[in-house]
Amino acid sequence: MSAASTQTYYRELCTLTRARLGALHSPELLIRSLDFARIEALQRKGEWDAAGVILNNAAKALERGGAQLIILATNTMHKLASQMMIGVNVPFLHIADATAKAIKGKGLRRPGLMATAFTMEQTFYTDRLIAAGLFPVLPDAADRAEIHRIIYDQLCRDITTKESAETFVAISKRLAASGADSVVLGCTEVGMLLNQGNVEVPVFDTTLIHCAAALDSALR
To answer: pLDDT of 87-108, one tens digit each?
Structure first.
């Protein structure tokens, strides 16, 4: 939803398409990029219905433009996935479903979740993981607050720092110590700081998983 994650999605889809189809190929995309400041203000004020109207209008615009598959390039706003797709007949690929499939495919069951406070503390996302047979592990309250702060104050603004990376790595270690057998990068910007190179348990980057699943669906 932020410009930072939109760029990551575009770059990853281009990379995957070249790898799958050949060097001159690129994906045919319709990108509906929203003003994230407006969305963040609605999130902060709890005006989710108003945000849902914005997403629904955007999805309808994509359908009118000829989209054959819709993905929502954010974890948090999947809270409004059902509202977004009202009156839209294009198939929709849910990021939590793609992520759960990837985790289960590795034989893992207790993913630690690092995401916005909305995604960690509300149930719209964790319920989806639980329905898939997983048992999500959440950071403690102080860690949840710090993850949320870094996402909005830094990552969504394309800012990364050594200190924030160290904080995220430390939180991932605490999740593993509390029983997580893997870590889900459950915000599309968290991969700016964490990856398999600095996390001691298997990492599932929802952005990369979502892109790969979207390309698989499109090519089918």
So the answer is: 999 999 999 999 999 999 999 9
Give me the domains of the chain, ranges plus CATH numbers: 3-94+209-219 (3.40.50.1860), 95-206 (3.40.50.1860)
Tell which residue, 128, 120, 126, 124, has the closest CA to residue 146: 120
Note the pLDDT tens digit of each residue in 50-78: 999 999 999 999 999 999 999 999 999 99
C-alpha 72/C-alpha 125 separation (Å) is 14
Of 214, 208, 193, 217, the residue nearest 31 (C-alpha):
214
Contacts of 93 (CB under 8 A, 6+ apart): 69, 70, 71, 210, 213, 214, 217
- Secondary structure of residue 83 in the 3-state scheme: helix
Single pTM value for the model: 0.96
Secondary structure (DSSP) of 199-210: -SS-EEEHHHHH
Site of tokens 């089918």: 220
The residues that are catalytic are 74, 187
